[in-house]
Each structure stands twice: as C-alpha cells, then as structure tokens.
Amino acid sequence: MRLNQETNKQGRYLWRPISRIAPTPSGYLHAGNAINFIITYLFTRSQNGFLHLRIDDYDLVRYKDEYVLNIFDVLEFLRLDYDAGARNLAEFRSKFSSAFRSEIYKQAVKNLKDTYFCSCSKHTPNAYKNGIYTGICRDKNLPFISGQTALKIKCELNLGDFVLFRKDGFVAYNFASVVDDELLGVNFIVRGADLFECSQAQKFLANKLNYKFQNCEILHHELLKKDGIKLSKSQKAPPINLKESPQIYYKMVAKMLGLNPKSSQNLNTLLEEFKEQKSQLLAKFC
C-alpha cells in the first residue's frame, strides 16, 4: 500500500494524499455519512494531505437546497475543515455545481470507445441475469432518444455494461465522479464497502480514458447497520442530530477502527491516536 511505502531518507512521506468528502444532496446526512467523512479526514490530515469538499449534485430528481445546507451544517458540527470547495449554498450554486462541468462530461465521453445507446430497463425481458446487464442492445445501433435511450459502455468485467449518460440526458454517477476526481487530482478515497463495484467501474473508466485516477488508492470501510440493513438515505436512516455532541461520532469511529476509546474526547485527540496507529489500521480496510 502506497500509504506506507514512499518515504525519503528522513522517513517522511513523499506521497501526499489528495482526497475529497463527496456527499450527495439527495437527503439529510446520517451516521454512516459522518463515519465516512471522519475517516477520510483522519487519513488525509494524518499525512498532511489536501482535502476537497465536492458536493455531487448529479441526481437532480432528489436534489434540494436544504440538503446542501445540511452538508455544511454537518461538517461544521463534526469540526471537519477542508482546503477547497464551496463554503455556503450561494457559492456552491454559483461556482461548484456539477452543472458547470456538463460540457466537460460531454467532451470526456467522446474519448471512450465501445459505447452504445440502450433502451432497456430493469423490467426488459432477458436484459439482466443475476443483476448484470446482458448487452442485448450492444449491436442495435440505436439513436439517442430523450427519455428512451441511455448511453452505456461495454464492460467485460463482472460489472456488466453500465450507464454513462441516463435516459434523461444527464450524466450518471460513476462517469461524472471519475471525471470530477481527475479534475481535482484525487489520488486517495475512503468509501463504504457497498461502493466496491463503483470503485471497479471508475477504475475501468479511468483506464479507458488514460486518467491518472486509475492509480488512485481506494480504501473501503465496513458499513454501519441497523437490524442487518445498512444505513442509507433510501432506507430512511435517521438524520444526524445537530443538537447532540459530535463526540458520539468520534466514538463510533474509534470503536470501528479499534482505537483507544479515550481518544474520542475530541477530533484532535482522535487524530493523534490515528497517526500513531495508522500503519496497523490499514488491515481493517479492503
């Protein structure tokens, strides 16, 4: 793992992580989001890295300004600082929304081969086998028809072919995310274990685009679950209570990572404990 290998003669790290906290404004943030933000912060700050805030407003159907405001409120609540990105709703809407990068996505997709338009849905007969698209539209040479066809890319991995631009004409998450990460120079990401396939898809795209992101270090942490089901916005996970103490979430991280419980008194003590145990902590991630 690069996090432990690249040092100079003085034992200092030559590799500097460039990471991002990248929430989606599609609902109020929950404990699982807080855990991910804190772990990303700890890894990045423990190595004097650079941390972006990137708000991924790709899903316009579920987007609400109040969810963007909640992101800023939660980061302030958790005491997590970052080096670049919007500082408030007005700045996000005027400078940082993915809408400003729509032409970049359109130009990037021109550099991809093996793409095609697809009219299938989850309910199309024989379109999916064990959840993986069978590619029945690959050779149909369908045109783009708004609301009817999506742009997909052929993928021989166990992911199956996946969407680059949705039927509504808007960019899909995996494609937008890898383009945005390349633009920011991201070389290190911490994600939940449920996003392992997303990581595979994005590395696949980065390789096809000859992006530096194909060398990005990606760690996946265990998920917070309730009654065996992961916490998520779609499952109506309870939002973070901003009237509570952030120490609740520092304790969750300390417990998940096996750190000294006393280190969760505040973010600074948690960071110091993390720095001391960093090399051992890597075994807890996949």
UniProtKB/TrEMBL annotation:
Signal peptide as annotated in the record: none
Family: Belongs to the class-I aminoacyl-tRNA synthetase family.
InterPro entries: aa-tRNA-synth_I_CS, Glu/Gln-tRNA-synth, Glu/Gln-tRNA-synth_Ib_cat-dom, GluQ/Sye, Rossmann-like_a/b/a_fold
GO molecular function, one term: glycosyltransferase activity
UniProt-listed Enzyme Commission number(s): 2.4.1.-
Native source organism of the sequence: Campylobacter mucosalis CCUG 21559
Domain of life: Bacteria
Protein name: Glutamyl-queuosine tRNA(Asp) synthetase
One biological process term in Gene Ontology: glutamyl-tRNA aminoacylation
